[in-house]
Amino acid sequence: MSEEKISRRKYLKYAGAAVAAGAVAAAGYGISQYYKPPTPTTTTSPTVTVTTGGKRKVRIGGTKPFTGPEALPGKSEGDANKLWAKMVNEAGGIKAGDGNTYEVELVLYNDEDKPENVGRLYEKLITDDKVDFLFGPVYGPLGMATVPIVEKYQKFEIFGTCSFNPKDFRNWKYIVHTITNGPGYMPAILDMIWERVVPNDPEAKNLAITHGDDAFRQTAGSYGYEYAKQKGFNVVFYETYHSAITDFSPLLTKVKGAQPAIYMNAGVYTDAIQIIKQMRELDFNVKLLWTGTGIVFPRAYEALGKYAEDIVTCTQWEKGLIYKQDYGPTHDEFLNAFQKEYDYQPDYHAATGFQQGLVLQRAMELCDDPLNSEKMRKVAGELEMTTFYGKYKVDPVTGWQTDHKMAVVQWQNAEKVIVWPMEAGAKTLHYPIKKWSER
Amino acid sequence: MLELLIQTIINGLFIGFLFGLAGMGLTLIFGIMKLLNFAQGPMIMLGAYGAFWVYVLLSVDPMLGILMTAIFGLILGALLYRGLLFKLVQAPALASLLVLFGVSMILENTMLNLWSPNPRSIPVDYPTFSFGLVTISGARLIVSAVAILASMLLMVTLKWTTFGRIIRATVQDRNAATLMGVDVTNVYMVGSSIGIGLTLLSGGLLALIYPFEPFGGLQYSLYSFVVVVLGTLGNPLGCLLAGLIIGLLHSFTGSYWTLNMSPAVAYLILVLTLLFRPGGLMAGRD
Fold it and tell me: Each residue of B191-236: pLDDT tens digit?
């Protein structure tokens, strides 16, 4: 009786071939995404907000990751897009600069959190669905996939929570940003420390900074590091780490050895959780701590319990953040409308989705040719306003957001408390934070 | 400086035991059935989710959840063998790779639907022990102790029990073992059961220390492959030894150079092993 066994040599051959094939496929995929324009195909049924009556219509399209790893932010931002459209239509539509009133029709597709879907769906939205304007998807790589399409078809697009490195900008002409981009994340916390902590504790100038090496973490961390030095902080430790790393103990052992007063890490949700757990394991205590943006989500508190107490993080928007606004619904009006419509509390993704709508609405009100992408982009580029979400002002040429600032929150008794900026109702900052052993 | 050195060694040993245990399930299945478990990563994540689920639903100590997950892994391994793997044992190697790749996709998407894409973690509150500037985490001590215990049990079973001799006989020559009256089908089933049980156990232990998500198994399975090749395919003791070596290298790279290079160093070791000692560290040793 014969049988086919796999030898060690064969094992190594197949394992090597599989790894090599995976690497080639990944490289090929990356290259194809970068150089090849997506081909249009028809797929998912869109979510459409249909209008009634004889008014003119403005048709707005976009994609969100309604499934996949970014499904929750996708749902938040998409729900807010839909709420904005509904509220505008219920109020009678947008009274545009050409004297006409426009009802909003929204077409949202599920991009499944895949850049390759984003490319072809945005092309479909423009060529098949004939949308007038576009709302961007949820984060940087997905947003980047829309750029060649909107620039090719010259369609005005308003980005939502897509964060970029300014070096990636390549003369984009039809895009404006709503959020603070990656370089502005850490400066919000640094400004807070400088204004609220350093005057009482000069030792707080001694910082350790680390960050992951992917696009977002690199941008947030490296710009934060430069900002800290310019501001006058003494950066006692600075290092990057591989973004796929889950065991931070070797890095944290080194950071602990540098004895910083404050430790800041530009990381994502998993980094943030991991670092706090491992700092506790190493009994590495600091006076103030930021381990990544993911700490803003309630699930971070669920994962860490009492060890999340007093941890700070930055956020684009937070419930309770009150600005002196000059346009759109108030903080309470947005909060109540969202909760009534969807029965859950809006996060910063939801607020950003609503802000996308407000920027488009205001630009149409001011534009004498409100369905013309070129003119709308020009108006949006010169627009200045403050909504419940904060300031909106972009560089007129690049569309880069310049005036929206991040807020800083701190977990206090299982609630997020706003501790920066002072003018937006900041509360007491817990400083220094409790040692791990005292919790 | 001495504290940094001691802490680096402790960190490395702790993660090394986990790497070793994760690789042990892989090496056992390969050693007995000559099957390369491409579903290793998702199975590790399944172990983590199993422990998490028991912890959340029953509000018991996570260790009980880990034990229950390991028992579930033993049953899953036997069922998987009866339902699927028995057909792959004699199938062409490429077929088994493709089928197990399919299993990994089914597992990942099932976990995605059951537990959402959000990363999860178990908020454990085990004590930390400090000796001057050197600290030892209670959670990592437990993980290491369980990993050592599981490895010892496995090695004692293989080396000094009748069942272990039967397994080794089957590994050496399936046909000769059959002629001696060994029911190789049962041996394979038990091998699959123990291998997958160990894999889920390593996942459960991992959940005590790290966050996890449905698609998070890839990095652990890649480290497992490195550990298995370095420690000699099919050799559990070699696997544990290789896990410790990779763990220490990871720790020393991070502490004395940069954590950025840690995965690269692990794969460099894989390449060097294949070039200079393709059979692994334990090649030629029983």
Answer: 999 999 999 999 999 999 888 888 889 888 888 999 999 998 878 8
The interface predicted TM-score (ipTM) is 0.76
Does residue B277 belong to the interface with chain A, where contact is any CB pair within 8 Å?
Answer: no
Residues contacting A37, CB < 8 A, separation 6+: A119, A123, A148, A149, A152
- Is B26 an 8 Å CB contact of chain A? no
What DSSP string runs through B201-222? HHHHHHHHHS-B-TTTHHHHHH
CA atoms within 13 A on the CB side of B71: 7
Q: Which domain holds residue B195?
A: 9-276
Residue A167 contacts B, CB cutoff 8 Å: no
Asked whether residue B4 is assigned to any structural domain, the reply reads no
How many A/B residue pairs have CB atoms within 8 Å?
Answer: 144
All domains in chain A, ordered by first residue: 47-180+322-393 (3.40.50.2300), 183-315+407-438 (3.40.50.2300)
| CB–CB contact B4 A257 (8 Å) | yes
CA separation for the pair A289, A294 (Å, rounded): 13
Q: How much is the pLDDT for A276?
A: 94
Q: Please indicate whether, in this complex, the C-beta atoms of B219 and A244 are within 8 angstroms of each other.
A: yes
Establish if B282 belongs to a structural domain: no
Chain B nearest-CA distance from A13, in A, is 11
Q: Please tell me which residue of chain B has the smallest CA distance to A249.
A: B11
Task: Write the CATH number for B30.
Answer: 1.10.3470
Q: Quote the number of domains for chain B.
A: 1
